[in-house]
Amino acid sequence: MEGIKKTFGSVQAVKNGEFNLKKGEIHSLIGENGAGKSTMMKLLYGMYPFDGGTVTIEGKKYDHISPKTAIEAGIGMVHQEFMLVKELTVLENIILGFEPKKGLTIDFAAARKTVQKYIDQYNMDIQLDKKIAQISVGEAQRVEIIKILTRGANIIILDEPTAVLTPQESRRLFEILNNLREDGKSIVFISHKLNEIMEISDRVSVMRQGTYMGTVNKADTNENELARMMIGRDVFLNIEKKKSDIGETVLQVEDLWTSGEKEISKIRGLSFDVKAGEIVGVAGIDGNGQSELIEAITGLRKVEKGKVILDGKDITNLSVKKIREAGLTHIPEDRNTRGLNRQFSIGDNLIEVTLDKEPFSKNGFLKKDAVKKFAEELIEKFDIRPARAELPTSYLSGGNAQKVVVAREVTLGGKLLVASQPTRGVDIGAIESIRSILQDVKEKGLGVLLVSAELEEIMSLSDRIIVMHNGKITGRLNAEDADEEQLGMLMMSGKEEGGEA
Ligand SMILES: Nc1ncnc2c1ncn2[C@@H]1O[C@H](COP(=O)(O)OP(=O)(O)OP(=O)(O)O)[C@@H](O)[C@H]1O
Ligand SMILES: [Mg+2]
């Protein structure tokens, strides 16, 4: 890809894009949120036309690529947000749109045979007859990969595949990627995690603000150099943990029971508390009830038994609105379905929940100037790009959309901030700033309940840590006394605290 240009309305997403991929290599593409990584790869996959430049695939020059051309040229892409149909089975999803026919009916036996061949060849663990809703995120991703392999892809683009994976699942993905490479497939890998980049890549290309910055061999570089190429300065992720004054209990969860998406994620009798001025981290392997716990506390899932007390007030099974009014703010794990209204402007999303209050409304009238000024302040403080409050939120890159949710929620104040995967998909500069903002929140005297799939994030921010396994708490530690190995054990163990099994 050479001299690539792409503009969306008045936003120049790619100014001068360049990328070259060799057969049988894993080539990472890195850059800050909004640098143009996803756009470059969507252009290659034919999702939008590019405005300038050329693409050459196996010697053939293209100045225009349609989705059909891309698939015929052997290009496959796994998107940042999956595109599988939840109600269908794995097999049905894989063959969707390309069903082998026997007469007028779909030949499932033939489909199964073809798909199974790929599963065996790349040693993937996939249950073909399960519904998508029943499988883990890691497995869904393998399904996406199988799907593009069965369409004959030789160039495989993975846009932030590990953002949603547990460390264990990432390991398995890397094994698969290595197998694919050995088989001569070419892989484009996008990630914000520099340790992964250093592990999996052969070469790394860097983009900054829509412009190609250069390509380095993995063997000749290191994490610090990559960070500097991306943002032009050093980044320090090891923030010093601040001690604040611990105050009253702001959240009390007593013998909580809920239903679960899966058997192991039912909440079975959880009790813990969060005090003002502290961050309590919830560690655990994804799917052990963390999401259900957060949903129950924030009013998104029915509490079957037990109590949730916020700042002395019983909020069990109240509506989301009532719970928010009682002083709870929430950075949800899925920004697209729960955190944002994609139809609305960035400005409206930054203030949406407080619209009907002063200073934004008075006597039923919306004060446009106040709204705009407030939104602009947040955009600047949180470095949301493009820095234009009037743009629709659908214009934002993945990481910038996340920043909008974080900015709105931490600015609301209240008593308790529930932060679920707060740094998912944001670049290292933004991780640094979001982590320091969470510390500010606790210094202001709020309690923070933090759920993160990154053990390192839990350890570097929390004052106390609770470990969840199978919908129960298997450990409670002071962060000072916790080490990664011990936490790992507690996350894996079926042992309930104090009990036998
Ligand atoms: N469909 C779209 N409509 C309008 N603007 C867009 C669209 N897609 C991307 N942009 C803009 O193009 C720029 C590049 O976005 P892109 O999604 O390529 O970034 P990215 O490097 O993938 O970032 P992230 O790491 O946050 O995913 C951003 O300024 C974004 O706001
Ligand atoms: Mg992206």
Q: What's the count of strands?
A: 24
Q: pLDDT average, as an integer?
A: 90
Do you know the CATH topology of the largest domain? Answer: Rossmann fold
Q: What structural class should be given to the helix and strand makeup?
A: alpha/beta
Proportion of residues in β-strands: 15-25%
Q: Which of globular, elongated, flat, extended, rod-shaped describes the shape?
A: globular
Rg (C-alpha, Å): 24 Å
| Ligands | adenosine-5'-triphosphate, magnesium ion
User: What CATH architecture of the largest domain do you see?
Assistant: 3-Layer(aba) Sandwich
CA(first)-CA(last) distance: 57 Å
What's the CATH H-level superfamily name of the largest domain?
A: P-loop containing nucleotide triphosphate hydrolases
The order of strands across the largest sheet is: 6-9-10-3-11-12
What proportion of the residues is helical, as a percent range? Answer: 25-40%
Low-confidence stretches: none
CATH top level class name of the largest domain:
Alpha Beta
Q: Number of helical segments?
A: 17
Tally of structural domains:
3
Task: Report on the biggest sheet.
Answer: 6 strands, mixed
Features:
501 residues, alpha/beta, Rossmann fold, 3 domains, 6-stranded mixed sheet, 17 helices, 33% helix, 24% strand, binds adenosine-5'-triphosphate
What secondary-structure arrangement, pairings included, does this model have?
Layout: E1 2-8, E2 11-17, E3 26-30, H1 37-44, E4 52-57, E5 60-62, H2 67-72, E6 75-78, H3 90-95, E7 101-102, E8 105-106, H4 108-121, H5 137-150, E9 155-159, H6 167-182, E10 186-190, H7 194-200, E11 203-208, E12 211-217, H8 223-231, E13 249-258, E14 267-275, E15 279-283, H9 290-298, E16 305-310, E17 313-314, H10 320-325, E18 328-331, H11 335-339, H12 346-351, E19 361-362, E20 365-366, H13 368-381, H14 398-411, E21 416-420, H15 428-443, E22 447-451, H16 455-461, E23 464-469, E24 472-478, H17 484-492
Parallel strand pairs: 3-10, 3-11, 6-9, 9-10, 15-22, 15-23, 18-21, 21-22
Antiparallel strand pairs: 1-2, 1-4, 4-5, 7-8, 11-12, 13-14, 13-16, 16-17, 19-20, 23-24
Bound molecules: adenosine-5'-triphosphate and magnesium ion (MG).
